[in-house]
Every structure is written in C-alpha cells, then in structure tokens.
Amino acid sequence: MAELINRPAYLEQLIQNRDVDLVKIVTGIRRCGKSSLLDLFHQYLSDDGVAESNIIHMNLESLRYRNLSDYLTFYDYVSVRIPKTGKTYLIFDELQAVEHWEKAIESFRLDFNVDIYITGSNAYLLSTEFSTLLSGRYVEIRMLPLSFKEFLTFYEFEPSVTVEKKFQWYLQFGGMPILREYKFNEARSNQALEGIYSTVVLRDILQRNNQADQAMLQKIMLFLCSNIGSITSPNSIGNVLSQKGDIHIGRGKNVAGKTVDKYISLLRSAFIFYSVGRYDVKGKQLLKTLGKNYIVDMGFRNMLLGYRDADRGHIIENIVFLELMRRDYRVYIGKVGATEVDFVADKPNDKLYIQVTESMQSPETRERELRPLRMIPDNYEKIVLSMDRSYINSYDGIKSLYLIDWLLS
Length: 409
Prior knowledge:
Elements: H1 8-16, E1 23-27, H2 34-47, E2 55-59, H3 71-79, E3 88-93, H4 101-111, E4 114-120, H5 128-133, E5 138-142, H6 148-154, H7 163-173, H8 186-206, H9 214-226, H10 234-243, H11 255-269, E6 273-280, E7 285-295, H12 298-305, H13 312-326, E8 330-336, E9 339-347, E10 350-356, H14 363-374, E11 381-386, E12 394-395, E13 398-402, H15 403-408
Helix pairs in contact: 3-4, 7-12, 8-12, 9-11, 10-11
C-alpha cells in the first residue's frame, strides 16, 4: 500500500464520531482522498487496540466483491463475518456499487453491535430514499481536495521556494492529492485531472442520467468555469447559451433556464460545483434569486480553460469559499442594500463578513470593498482579504488581512 498521507482535520472528525450511533458518510468528488481517509482510520483503530477480526473493510469497486451487487447478497456476505463478541467496525468504500445498499446498512445497525463508516463519490449516497430510511441517523463528513495548508505539507519544495511561489502553484494546479506524483509537471498533471474529470462526468453523471447530453453538460461546465464568482441565474445562463446557439429552445420561454438548472444540479451531485445562495443582511432572510457557483478545485478549471493570471480575483474568491467550507461555515453571498458582500459565513455561535480582492492599493477599490462592510449594522467580525502584504491591518475596525496568512491561520 502506498504511504498514507495524514489529513488530520478529517481523521479527527471520524475519531470524534467514533462509537456514536450514527452512520458516518464521507462524501466528496472522486479521488479527493476518501479511500485514503478510511485507510487512515483503519490504521488508527488497529493502533488503538481493535482486533483485525473486528474491522471489516471493503472497497466495493474491487472485483473480488463483484457478486455483491445487491443489498441481500451484501448483507449475507458481511453478516457471517461479524464476530459474536465486541464491537465491529464496518468500513465500506464506494458503496454506490451495491443496489439499495441503504437497506443493508440499516439492518446492520439494528442486528449487530457495529459502528459504520462509508464513502461514495456522489450525492446519490445521500439521495432521498436513503435520507428517508436513515433520517437523522447519519452524519455527513464532506471531504474537499487539499487546502493550501495541507498542500504545503503534502509536497516537498526546495528550501529556496517562497510561500508566494507555492501559492501560485496552488492556484494553478489545485489540491487534488494525486498530482503530487507529477511534481508540478503541467502536461502530466492536466492529463491526470482530465482522467478524473471524464470519470466523474461519464460515471457519476451521465451513466445515472441517461437523458443528459454530454455536449450540453460540457458547455454549461465551461460557462460556469468562466464565470466563477459572478452572480448568475439558470435563466441568464440559458439566454447566453441560446444566443450562441448552444441550446435550442422550443416554444416554452423558460426551457433554457430549466435545462441549465438540471445540469447544474447534476454537477453539484457529483461534487464538482457548489452553488451559494444570497442572503439579505439587513432583512435577515435568504433570497430566492441569483446565486454564485464555485468549483471544487482550481486544477479542473485551469485544465478546462487554461490558466490565466488575469482571473486571479475570481480564483482567490473561489479559494476563500472552499476554505470557509472546510472551516465548517455555512456560506452565503451577502446583499446589503444595493451592494454585495462576497461572503457571509455562519456558524451556530459565530458570523463573519468577508470581502475578497486582489489588491486594496487603489483608493477606488478600497472604497468599493469597504463600503458594503461599513453598511452592516451588527458587530460581527468584518474582514477584507487581499494579496497585499500591507502594514495597514485595519480600517475603522474592519480587518485587512494578507490572504496567505489567513489561509495558514
């Protein structure tokens, strides 16, 4: 087995949920490290004195389990292997390969003294049948590609490489763990990302939605990649694509919008994109219209569009969004009167307002970024993140932070 690279933040979440009577479901895009996380957890259990006979660990994409394609054969196979004494840890990887797997999982919970951990690459794992069956009885651990902090420990750098240069590489290559093997070779890295991307599109999306059109999915994907951090609606995307002749609209006015909406939700269910809604800060309510879409990893975007430095503002905004998700915030786009705040980040007992900008040097930009924050009437923390290493670290109580410092904090 390849050497396992620790992802302490995720391992810690599994450890905190150990022996809690909930099914632990690790979700995330293919190849972001879910299987390795389960291997790490297996290792942790062994080191903690759990006997190997009390750990049943199966990757259901392996051909040795090819006959376990439905829940009954799966249940029978596992049941006879569960020891009569002590607690048994059931670790199932790529469980979507078993039809109606959720029935077997629920039955293990009821029939045996077990603690269950599962992964899968798409939201079908959390689809309606499943949530109904296990409602309130599972905890979802959402795994993302490497954060910048993890990226720094994951790769080996020459001592002379500055943190700015490392960040530049992170913006360009993204955080998919597999790329470590290519040591920043652009052609090889793009090939690897293309392979993952095709698998996600072909297996996690098109195989399960046979009405979906691959060319259309690709066009919408490229549109979202080009418009990261821009406020869009399915209708507005539909209009742009139909003007270009990419979507042919029948008689119904809203067909394009509905089509686009369907495809965006397919991209979300494969964890390639995240959609963020808008929140009216003064009226304290979620708005139904217009949101933004962020991609799970910059490497995919750069593989599809080519890396352009001109987009840095939007790229760093995307990186901040992912970081807030990693830090367990619920994230919204803030609307304050007629202006926007890039992010309202919410936790049960904490709230942050964040603006992200390439630079605060020019007075116009500074004013534009600070104004919405000044208009917010409450006392929660307000921050502007930029690529300036500035000696000014506060404007009337609004913190100004160097983005890299914030990512590493």
